[in-house]
Structure formats: C-alpha cells, structure tokens
C-alpha cells in the first residue's frame, strides 16, 4: 500500500532543506546518466529481444542501430 502522508512529509522536508534537495537531485541525475545512456538502454533492449526471440534477425537490426547511434 502507498503511504501518502509519508510522501507529503518527505516533500515538505525537501522544500525546507535546499541543500538536501540539491543533494538528492545530483544523485538522481548521476543515476540517470549512468543507467540510462543510449548505449545502456539499447543493450537492455537487445538482451530482451534476444531472450524473447533467440536466433532471430532482430538482434542484427538492434546492433546496427547501436552502431549508428554511437
């Protein structure tokens, strides 16, 4: 179950603490930059396609897309 009161309390804390909000923002940005680069996301999709359709030519199209995107 979701606890809206705790979420509201956390947001009020962040609104009152600029340094903490900036720290969380910087950490979130670092996570996104590390985990969601184009190369990483394409690799995740490639792994999914290969798992769902092993031996199919789909992975070739993804690999070509990776090469042109990078």
Task: Provide a concise account of the structure shown.
This protein has 70 residues and is mainly α.
Description of the molecule:
The protein is mainly alpha-helical. Helices cover 83% and strands 0% of the residues. It has 4 helices and no strands. It has helices spanning 4-16, 18-35, 38-52, 58-69. Helix 3 runs antiparallel to helix 4 (58-69). It is elongated, with a radius of gyration of 19 Å. The chain starts with a helix and ends with a helix. The mean pLDDT is 85.
User: Which radius of gyration do the C-alpha atoms yield?
Assistant: 19 Å
Given as residue ranges, the uncertain stretches (5+ residues, pLDDT < 50) are none
Query: Could you tell me the number of beta strands?
Result: 0
Estimate what percentage of residues fall within beta strands: under 5%
Determine the mean pLDDT. 85
Tally of DSSP helical segments = 4
Task: Please give the largest β-sheet.
Answer: none
Oligomer: single chain
Shape: elongated
Question: What is the straight-line distance between the termini?
Answer: 42 Å
| Relative helix content | over 70%
Question: Which sequence of SSEs, written as H and E, runs from N to C?
Answer: HHHH
Broad structural category: mainly alpha
Topology:
Layout: H1 4-16, H2 18-35, H3 38-52, H4 58-69
